Amino acid sequence: MNSAVSFFYFLSFLTILSAVMVVVSRNPIHSVLYLILTFFTLSGHYILLNAQFLAAVNIIVYAGAIMVLFLFVIMFLNMKQDQEEAKTNLTKIAATIVGGTVFVILFGAYRKTAIEPFNPQTYDSQVGMIENLGHMLFREYLLPFELASILLLVAMVGAVLLGKREIGERHF
Question: Which are the contacts of 32, defined by CB distance < 8 A and separation ≥ 6?
Fold first, then answer.
C-alpha cells in the first residue's frame, strides 16, 4: 500500500476518534482539546489534498482563535452545577432522533456520490493554492465573502458589548 494512502487512513481514523471523543468526553476542557486535535487532523487532510493555504488557515483560525474563544466561554460558565440533572430522557431521545436522521441523510448522500477516477492528463496541481482561492473568493463569491465579514464584525461588537462591565457591577 502507498505511504500516502496509509497516512490518509491513519489521519481518518485519528479524526473520527477525536471527533467522537469531543462528543463523548464529560469534561468540557477535554472536549475542547479533542476538538483542537480534530482541527489539526483535518489540516492534515487539507495538506494531502494539496490545499496548503486552507490547512494553514484552519490551524490559525479554528485551532487557534476559535478554540481560545471556546476555552474562555467555558471558563466563564459556572461549571460547578451538576450537568447530569439537566439531561432529561426527553433531550436524550431528541438527540438520538436528530443524530439518526443526520446519519441517514449523510449515508444517502454518500451512496449517490460518484467518484471520478484519477486522470493524470486533466489533473491540475494548482487547485488548492492561494492564487486560485483568491480569484474564486474575490470574483465568484465576493458577496458571500463580504457578508461573512460583516457578520464577523457584528459578532465581535456583540462580544465586546456583552463583556463590558456596567457601572456598580461587582468584580468576582
Answer: 67, 70, 71, 74
Count of C-beta atoms within a 10 Å radius of residue 148: 11
Please enumerate in sequence order all residues whose Cβ is within 8 A of that of 122, keeping only pairs 6 or more positions apart, or say none: none
- The pLDDT of 80-97, averaged and rounded, is 72
pLDDT tens digits for range 111-132: 888 877 877 787 777 766 778 7
Cα distance between residue 158 and residue 69, in whole Å: 14
Cell (9 digits) for 65: 482563535
Phi/psi at 19 (nearest 5 deg)? -70, -40
86: buried, middle or exposed (CB in 10 Å: 19+, 13-18, 0-12)? exposed
CA distances in angstroms from 138 to 135, 146, 150, listed in the order given: 5, 9, 15
For residue 129 the three cell numbers come to 493554492
| Gap between the Cα atoms of 165 and 21, Å rounded | 36
C-alpha cell at 125: 496541481
In this structure, what C-alpha cell is assigned to residue 27?
469534561
